[in-house]
Amino acid sequence: MCGCNQKKGKTNLLIIHLLSSIVCIYVLWRFVWPLPVKPGPKGLLALVIVLVSQHHLIGRTFFGTLASPEMPFAVLVALGWLFGAYVLLAAFLLLKDVAAIMLWGLRKAGVGVAFPFSAARASGILLGGTLVLSAIGVWQAVRVPDVRTVEIFLPRLPAELDGFRLVQLTDLHISRLYQAPWVKAVVEKTNALNPDLILMTGDLIDGTPQERADDVSPLRDLKAREGVFAVPGNHEYYAEYQPWLSAFSSLGLRMLLNEHVVVPARGQALVIAGVTDRAAARFGAPLPDIQAALSGAPRDAVTILLDHQPRGARTNAGAGVDLQLSGHTHGGQIPGIHCITRAVNGGFVSGIYTVGGMQLYVSRGAGLWPGLPLRLGLPSEITEIVLRSGPDKKPGAAR
Known about the structure:
By secondary structure, this protein is an alpha/beta fold. Helix content is 41%, strand content 17%. The strands form two sheets. A six-stranded mixed beta sheet has the order 1-12-2-3-4-5, covered by helices on one side. The protein has a six-stranded mixed beta sheet with strand order 6-7-8-9-11-10.
């Protein structure tokens, strides 16, 4: 079984690089080839685009892994900027070609319309615009996230726990892109909220415990009255899963691996449960098991579940969970692309959802995978959740 999943993982990598190559050919064909410039500059631009399009392959071959390229921060930022501009350029070229086809159809129908710019000017606007947008997106991705406060109403929550405050941290992706000073700033912002609980929903790291030893050390300073609990995300499995479990425990994080704890909060029992991640299948590790996670938990207590990916929400709701906290989606990162992210994550991408009788909150996360450090209009977050007793008179809109 493990061998089959490893082959599947290699196949997925090949598909990623193949798709990148196809997009590269499209950009060369529709953008570089028509440029009214001399062959020398045109060839140089084509070479840059090819290298940028394949920088993940180059990185995982010579500088670490796909999940954790071990490059200096400035290099990762520069590559993120160029790759982001390349992705945006491909998207805008596609929209431009679709518009051209529509205009052609209108002209065939006798409607006289045309592009307002010459081809050369349109190319200049596209290139300049994507470079600027990508620079803004990278800045939004690498900055220390702001606090986002949300209220979540739970019908079964005892009145004594009304106003109980959680902080959800997810998708930190601690790496050469998000290093110790950034992690320390996130920890300080979190502690300043003086939370009752800190709940961490996976993808905390990229890289091995040896590579990230200094960068994860600020997590030791996380403080909450009722403790700090965490579950793994898919990226924990990509880099020495078992050693990371020991490292997280040494940092004071209580890992919940298909299990639960009962927290005596304000004289009331509160169940905090956690499951492993679906990526475990590729590594021969235990798969998420909601029944095992809740086995022996008091039925009359409110249950909060940590599950990195939101796709299992409907199953978890059926198991009697009151509130599920997830991440994984990064909020979609870029408008338009977020629709694809939502589609592959069971219809969930960011914000509050009602699933059966359960509330689901999907955080946009604090960090990003270093391979695409880009956010546009979908900012990162440290999530402060205030629990409220009773039904919500104004249900939170799913976003």
